[in-house]
Amino acid sequence: MGNANNPAGRLHTVLTAYRAAAHTNSTMHATWAAVLGVPEGQVPVALAEVAALIPEIHRLVVQCGASEQIELFDAFGRQWAVPIMSEHHPRQTPSPGADAVDPNALAVLGGLSAYLSTCAPEGVLPDPERVADLKAAVSELLDELADEDSLPTDLRSAINARLHDIIWAMDHVRIGGPGAVKQAMERLLGQITISLHTAPDARDSGFLKKVMKTISCVWVAYKAGPQVHAALEGWQDILKQLPPGH
């Protein structure tokens, strides 16, 4: 899926697919429905996720600090938004067809993707079989959480919400990328860390140990680069502070 490790790469992949699928005899919403794999009635919500990639690209380009790349964003960013928020009625024909995606703007987006994949890579996408196994492990935690009584109510509620966030991020990785999955797990880790300070007895929960082991496996699966080994050591340090799981 192209350079899925950065928002420019993900937007490039989606706009490339739109350009390939678009035809003047098909409405823009019908084309987006096919590209994004959603019913036409859900296209506006799905496009809101796609549109959010553009300011995220700008944030990372500014963060990386190359003035030339910022100038490219300023020059072409509006054109990337045209097929997403076109002034043409999205449910009428004839539509702009493939012309809604400017090929020059698309080429620049591809260049920015290559740049961001070097200066601000988010991680990797595991193969589908690995993703299915990880999702099953998280779903198992949710099933067990329903009968878990060793944790404070507020921590149980937080774990429930964050585990659902993780599954949502895994299901929406085409737009959110590996970074969104890691962020969801880091939010759960933060919630657990805070709760252990306010409710130290939660350390006695074997279920909590299982949660930590599972989310550490998911986190590492979406992580890339030499930082993985250091990250693994960090997770192990946290796990050592908790009792054995069941």
Provide an overview of this structure.
The protein has 246 residues and is mainly alpha-helical. The chain has 2 domains: 113 residues, no CATH class; 114 residues, no CATH class. Helix content is 69%, strand content 0%. The chain contains 11 helices and no strands. It starts with 6 loop residues before the first helix and ends in a 6-residue tail after the last helix. The model has no long low-confidence stretch (mean pLDDT 89).
Question: Care to give the gist of this entry?
Answer:
By secondary structure, this protein is mainly α. It contains eleven helices and no strands.
Largest sheet: none
Strand content: under 5%
Give the overall silhouette: elongated
* Helix-strand pattern: HHHHHHHHHHH
The gyration radius over C-alpha positions equals 21 Å
- Our count of helices gives 11
| SSE-based structural type | mainly alpha
Poorly predicted runs are: none
Q: How many domain modules?
A: 2
The overall strand count is: 0
Overall average residue pLDDT = 89
Q: What percent of the residues sit in helical stretches (DSSP H or I)?
A: 55-70%
Distance between the termini: 38 Å
